[in-house]
Design brief:
heterotrimer; A alpha+beta; B mainly alpha; C alpha+beta; A: alpha+beta; Cytochrome-c3 Hydrogenase, chain B; three-stranded antiparallel sheet; 15 helices; about 10% strand; globular; B: mainly alpha; two-stranded antiparallel ribbon; two-stranded antiparallel sheet; 14 helices; about 65% helix
């Protein structure tokens, strides 16, 4: 005789992370599941909180620059550029044209390097380990390049307020062009192993569909927004720098493959943006002007930064001045809001982190999908926890 | 019968029965231990090494290349061959951790069941002429049923771990392996239909005979490729072979079917709570089963130990049937085929992304089962023709 | 895409993937893989630009603390020997009794380098500093362990002047009198 038992089924609450291989760092997601189907999930952020905004209020404007590297540590160059521009606007510093070109080349190369990482780790999330290492191989070249010019392999600290660490020389630019050729030729490899692979498409197409309305309502930005069919890019629509001087386009999902707003399209937008970045860097290198005689301060030694004329030693912003500057980071719209009280450090610094805003949409687009899809969706949103938690 | 009957009627015969059981156990145990020591462990260790080394090269890196020998003046890196041994020794020295709140007994015996299941496959694996542990008349049936033993071990491991990830992994394993038994069984039936026997030795010898394809008799020795079952009922058994191979991948939890232990979703699935040599046993068992199932695939479809190398040994060098040349030739033949299938498993793993559970199920029931059915019907027709 | 289209797509893309991995495998086997064998082989590092562990010339340091003030994490600790009045010595006569950098705090941002008037501190090519305790992460630079290796033109000129005045030997002797050894002479 088998004793009668109460057979009941109930929802399972699984806790994914913070020590989980697929949460891209220390994200914790609590999921309520019915078997493998996710009924609800909640991203718990804050495990990597390092008080970045408070630190900004306690160090001088130029001292905060290395900290911006550590926001989105995969795209340090872009963070630095945005902060430098915010501080320059606050302090009233004008940049020479050559510096604008250097900024554009470095940020677009940074975007390329960051997207290489995103595309590769997305392969890792859906179980393809080899494309991850292929992407890392190319990213390694980018690391060599950035190390050569800035001294750091990942946390570059290349940009300075009113300038950068050092001027780009011809030998380095030649290496950069070789790197671009190399990435361009290798992108077919990633597409063969991932983008056009049937299994990858099965895993990612029609999964985690983020509708246009939901994307706008949640404040999603970057490739994730464009994958939902919203044609919005800060570089073009709120122009900064010298992007208007070049011919380039903003890739937007058109629904030719998969559903607009699914994981595959988010991945595909990154792959397309890599091509645009390559083209932008090439155009900028072609057109880059020589430095004018009065543009820059003399550089006495290779250890001194390459600064524009008129950048003060002690940086003081006028009292009550406030700026909000945004730029298109690889992960979306990065914004720095700085308020000055007349001192050498900002009175308030607020960072609008794209990954933080993008991760908020996670519960909305994972309901009803499987646990496997949750991993694919987190990977496709492409968060960096350094930026989510700041 | 009840206890009273047992005691009154059967007690007098008990000593004989017990000695018989002891003898049988000893007779079974000693060859089994020999097989473990001589075949399974080296195969497992070499398999791990091959996996790591090949994946390294596929990913444009070197893989393990340091651990060699260093005895006095003899120093060589041995291309990293010692890595698996070193890892095994490291695992032996690790803590044998049992998660609190788990089912201790089940947790401890689960790896033994998985390892034992893959070990038992080696009993019927025909390495060469007369080089086989046992040749039962239910050969393939034995393989399929013993292969399914692993599921129970994995389910035990997942349940006993007291970990939700482990449990989800174990449930996936049950669903996946249970489903893939069906197309695997159907695919394995095709060689049986051609031979008319479940016995592995007869399946092999049928493939060495002069081939008959769709009733057409081809007057060349079957050992030169065309006699192999993969060419029987051409081209249907090529598809059957592919189906069998895919099912092997799924049953072995190899990528792209590594759902029960996929590290990016379930941390490590049913292996999450395991450490030390118990984890090592799962691992060793997986690689041993990979080799064994590759060997079964080679036996069923690629002629087993008969083939060009064996043909050369017998007809080129004039080795006597049953002699040393015959056995060595057959063993080499078997090894290259099995290794090829083994390497293909590694190659596939490091190329493809992982599938999702519903897609794995869809592949099984929507694609593999109907295709295997069609192929089986075609093979039956071919078998009727000749 | 129909039933057979799916099958064909799966087979085609899988075959393409397998072909690609094989070509990489063949290239790795014949031409060697991309990675380096680390302890034997090292990546080329630019000694001028690389931001590794500091290099510091204790003799030429004037104890102005510009680097410590520039440091965003305050990981540089500077002390110099007191003069006759009991005040810390500054300028050319200063004798460094402490120049510690705490590498468990250091960001390797390089902000300490540009302010230095005598160019006696910079970030070098060294990057390995393993240790088991937090104390081991504090490097005592005043003991002269890591003198500046890659010298700029400006620094070379300053070193020549410094040497001409015979200050290297004097500083070393003064520090030795305070019980501070000089592990590697900066003018050597």
């Amino acid at each position: 005789m088998v004793p009668e038992r109460d057979v009941q089924s109930e929802e399972l609450v699984v806790n994914m992370g913070p020590q989980h291989p697929a949460t891209h760092g220390v994200l914790r997601v609590t999921c309520k599941t019915d078997g493998e189907v996710i009924l609800d999930c909640e991203p718990m952020v804050g495990n990597l909180h390092r008080c970045k905004e408070k630190i900004a209020e306690n160090v001088q404007y130029w001292q905060f620059m290395p900290y911006t590297d550590r926001l989105d540590y995969l795209a340090s160059m872009n963070n630095e550029e945005c902060y430098a521009r915010a501080a320059e606007k606050l302090l009233g510093i004008k940049l020479p044209e050559r510096m604008e070109y250097i900024r554009l080349i470095m940020t677009e190369a940074g975007r390329l390097s960051s997207h290489l990482m995103s595309v590769g780790t997305y392969g890792l999330d859906v179980g393809a380990i080899t494309p991850f290492l292929y992407c890392f191989r190319e990213r390694e070249e980018a690391n060599h390049l950035f190390e050569k010019i800035s001294g750091g392999r990942m946390l570059y600290h290349f940009m300075r307020i009113g300038g950068c660490a050092r001027d780009l020389d011809d030998a380095w630019i030649q290496r950069l062009l070789e790197f671009l050729d190399r990435v361009e030729s290798k992108m077919d490899e990633y597409n063969t192993l991932l983008t056009w692979n049937k299994m990858f498409q099965e895993r990612t197409m029609h999964v985690g569909v983020l509708t246009r309305e939901a994307a706008l309502a949640h404040g999603v930005t970057g490739p994730a927004l464009r994958a939902s069919g919203v044609d919005w890019d800060v570089r073009r629509d709120d122009p900064y720098g010298i992007y208007h001087k070049f011919k380039w386009s903003v890739p937007v999902a058109d629904g030719k493959y998969g559903t607009v707003g699914d994981c595959w399209n988010r991945h595909w937008m990154r792959a397309l943006e890599m091509k645009e970045s390559i083209s932008l860097v090439r155009q900028a290198i072609d057109k880059m002007p020589k430095a004018g005689p009065d543009d820059f301060q003399p550089v006495e030694s290779p250890h001194k930064p390459y600064l524009a004329k008129g950048v003060p030693r002690t940086m003081r912003a006028p009292k009550g001045a406030e700026v909000y500057v945004r730029s298109e980071n690889p992960r979306g719209e990065l914004g720095f809001y700085l308020v000055s009280d007349g001192g050498t450090s900002p009175y308030r610094c607020k960072i609008r982190a794209p990954a933080f805003c993008n991760i908020a949409v996670l519960p909305h687009i994972t309901r009803g999908y499987l646990i496997s899809d949750l991993v694919a969706i987190i990977g496709s949103i492409d968060i960096v926890l350094g930026e989510v938690d700041r | 019968m009840n206890l009273r009957e047992l005691l009154t009627e059967h007690l007098p015969q008990m000593p004989e029965a017990i000695s018989g059981i002891v003898m049988a156990l000893l007779l079974a145990l000693i060859p089994a231990l020999l097989v473990v020591a001589a075949v399974v462990t080296p195969v497992g260790l070499l398999g791990v090494y091959a996996e790591r080394r090949l994946s390294g090269k596929i990913q444009d890196r070197s893989g393990p290349n340091r651990v060699g020998i260093s005895i006095g003046p003899i120093k060589h890196h041995l291309w990293g061959l010692g890595q698996s041994v070193a890892d095994g020794l490291k695992l032996l020295g690790k803590e044998d951790f049992v998660p609190p709140g788990g089912e201790k007994v089940l947790f401890l015996i689960a790896p033994l069941i998985v390892f034992g299941g893959s070990l038992a496959l080696f009993a019927v694996l025909p390495f060469g002429p007369n080089l086989v542990g046992a040749d039962p008349n239910v050969g393939i049936f034995y393989v399929l049923s013993i292969g399914a033993l692993e599921v129970i071990g994995v389910l035990m491991a997942g349940w006993a771990s007291n970990n939700k990830w482990s449990l989800i992994g174990a449930m996936r394993e049950v669903a996946q392996v249970g489903s893939y038994e069906i197309p695997m069984g159907i695919a394995a039936l095709c060689p049986v239909l051609m031979t008319g026997s479940l016995r592995l030795s007869e399946i092999i010898s049928r493939q060495a005979a002069e081939p008959v394809i769709w009733g057409v008799h081809i007057p060349i020795p079957g050992e030169l490729f065309l006699g192999w079952n993969v060419f029987a009922a051409f081209p249907f058994n090529i598809i059957t072979f592919v189906i069998f191979y895919i099912c092997c991948l799924a049953n072995l939890k190899r990528a792209p079917f590594d759902l029960p232990e996929c590290e990016s979703e379930l941390v490590a699935g049913f292996l999450t709570e395991y450490s030390g040599m118990r984890w090592g046993l799962f691992f060793l068992g997986e690689y041993a089963a990979m080799f064994a199932l590759s060997g079964i695939g080679a036996t069923l479809f690629l002629g087993g130990w008969t083939g060009p190398v064996h043909y050369l040994a017998v007809h080129g060098f004039g080795a006597a049937p049953g002699g040393i040349g015959d056995i060595v030739g057959g063993a080499i033949e078997f090894t290259w085929k099995t290794s090829l299938l083994f390497i293909l498993m590694i190659w596939v793993r490091w190329t493809l992304p992982r599938m999702r559970l519903d897609q794995v199920m869809r592949l099984c029931y929507k694609y593999l089962v109907p295709a295997a059915m069609v192929c089986m019907l075609a093979t039956a027709a071919a078998a009727l023709l000749g | 895409m129909g039933y057979f289209g799916n099958i064909w797509d799966g087979i085609r893309t899988t075959a393409q993937g397998l072909k690609l991995t094989t070509s990489v495998f063949a290239r790795a086997v014949t031409k060697g893989s991309y990675t380096l064998q680390y302890p034997e082989e090292n990546l080329p590092i630019d000694p001028v630009t690389h931001r590794g562990i500091h290099e510091y010339d204790v003799d030429r340091c004037i104890s102005c603390e510009a680097c410590a003030k520039a440091c965003p994490v305050d990981c540089i600790y500077i002390e110099s020997a007191p003069d006759a009045k009991g005040k810390p010595t500054k300028g050319k006569v200063s004798v460094m009794t402490r120049f510690d950098i705490d590498y468990s705090k250091c960001l390797f941002c390089g902000l300490c380098v540009p302010p230095c008037p005598s160019e006696c501190i910079q970030l070098g090519a060294r990057y390995s500093l393993p240790g088991h305790t937090r104390d081991e992460m504090v490097v005592h630079f005043h003991e002269g362990g890591y003198p500046v290796a890659e010298k700029t033109d400006h620094a070379k000129k300053m070193i020549e002047e410094f040497r001409a005045e015979g200050l290297y030997a004097k500083k070393r002797a003064e520090r030795a009198a305070l019980g501070i050894p000089t592990l590697r002479p900066a003018d050597g």
